[in-house]
Each structure stands twice: as structure tokens, then as C-alpha cells.
Q: What sequence folds into this?
């Protein structure tokens, strides 16, 4: 299957600093990537949809100025947590559908391994 | 808006027992249905998926799921669980036709006792 990677896998930062998380599709191009947040013992909550060549679409309640998303190329999306606070500590997961919009394979998504963010 | 319900939050079984995890969704249109598994410390992996066709789908590791449209359900089953099946299981849905973000259920933690 298609492979999605995330970097870093784990990051610890001080409150007030910014952290960048990368999501890469390794063997396919992804015009769309999704960013989720997973709290301990909880399900995944969609934060935003990252679109190559256009602005990201944020879910209700997600601060777009705090969680900056840049879809720099067809294989890379980045999530920057700005001015991080302890409540931003979480597990951030990205996913990407292989194939082009409208194609059958576009219905499926492949997930990255996640990034554990701890804000002190 | 879609929603997905997984009624079993934590299931504990002995090895060789049969498993059925419930999943119900609320959406009136065409849907794509998925079951994902997350082993401890690992990322989400696709167990199986339903897009169309035969409502009984078979996935990896002996899992299967049945889509019952009239009940808005997509329950996951395995006839005989193993200790290695201990993991968190997530049901997910997106709208059919083109890629949409997934809506996840709250997850079910399965613990299989040796």
C-alpha cells in the first residue's frame, strides 16, 4: 500500500515556541492531505484539510492562525503549531488519499505514524 | 453532518472467542465504510473497507464486516481472536463518490487474554 511518513515522530517544546510537523506521501502524489488530532483514549478529530496550491480548510473550532498548514508540494504538507501551549499537547496524525480526485482510489486514505507533541 | 457510533468502548475476550464490534453511522447518502486498527504504539492500519458491491467484506488477519444499509451498520467480526488482536479499533465513514475527510467513531479497545 501507499506510504505516508511524518516527521518528527516525537517533539517536546517549551510553551510559547512554534513546532513544525511534516507529512509526506512517499510513493504517490497527494493533492489533498488531512490533519487529525488524537487525544489519549479518544478518537481522531479532523482538524483541517490541506490542499496543494490553495488554502487549507479548517474544521469548526480549529484556530487557523494557531495551526498553520502549508501544502508545499504534491508530496508534502506541514502543520505548524504556533505559540504552543500545554493544552496543544496531543498526537497529531496526517493522512492522504492516493490517486486523483474523482478516481476510485481517492476514496481511501493512508495514515502517517503520527507525531507526539508535548508542550512543557 | 455524519456521525459514527461505536457502542463498545472496551471489550475483553479470551483467545479463540468470537468477536463482534458494533458500528452505526448516520448519513442518508452513499457512504464508504472503513475499519482501522491501531496496535499499541503504532499507526492506524486499514483492516477492511466497503465502497460498493457485496456487503460482506473480508479484510486482513481474518476480519470481516457486513454492511447492512437498512440498519446503517457496519459491524466488524472475527470468528476466533488471538492475543495479538489486542488493539484499538476504529470505524470510519466518508461520503461516497469522492474523497472526503473521514469521520471516526470513538474507538473500541479490544483486550484479548491469553
A:
Amino acid at each position: 500500500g501507499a506510504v505516508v511518513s511524518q516527521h518528527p515522530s516525537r517533539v517536546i517544546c517549551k510553551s510559547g515556541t512554534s513546532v513544525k510537523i511534516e507529512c509526506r506521501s512517499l510513493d504517490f502524489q497527494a493533492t489533498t492531505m488531512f490533519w487529525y488530532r488524537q487525544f489519549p483514549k479518544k478518537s481522531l478529530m479532523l482538524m483541517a484539510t490541506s490542499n496543494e496550491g490553495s488554502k487549507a480548510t479548517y474544521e469548526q473550532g480549529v484556530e487557523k492562525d494557531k495551526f498553520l498548514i502549508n501544502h508545499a508540494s504534491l508530496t508534502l504538507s506541514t502543520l505548524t503549531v504556533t505559540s504552543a501551549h500545554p493544552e496543544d499537547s496531543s498526537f497529531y496524525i496526517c493522512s492522504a488519499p492516493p490517486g486523483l480526485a474523482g478516481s476510485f482510489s481517492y476514496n481511501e486514505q493512508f495514515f502517517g505514524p503520527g507525531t507526539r507533541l508535548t508542550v512543557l | 453532518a455524519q456521525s459514527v457510533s461505536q457502542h463498545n468502548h472496551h471489550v475483553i475476550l479470551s483467545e479463540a472467542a468470537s468477536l463482534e464490534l458494533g458500528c452505526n453511522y448516520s448519513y442518508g447518502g452513499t457512504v464508504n465504510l472503513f475499519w482501522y486498527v491501531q496496535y499499541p504504539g503504532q499507526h492506524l492500519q486499514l483492516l477492511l473497507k466497503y465502497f460498493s458491491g457485496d456487503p460482506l467484506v473480508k479484510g486482513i488477519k481474518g476480519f470481516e464486516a457486513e454492511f447492512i444499509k437498512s440498519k446503517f451498520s457496519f459491524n466488524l467480526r472475527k470468528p476466533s481472536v488471538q492475543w495479538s488482536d489486542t488493539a484499538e479499533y476504529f470505524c470510519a465513514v466518508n461520503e461516497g463518490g469522492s474523497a472526503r475527510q473521514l469521520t471516526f467513531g470513538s474507538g473500541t479497545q479490544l483486550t484479548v487474554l491469553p
Remarks:
- The two ends of chain B are 41 Å apart (CA to CA).
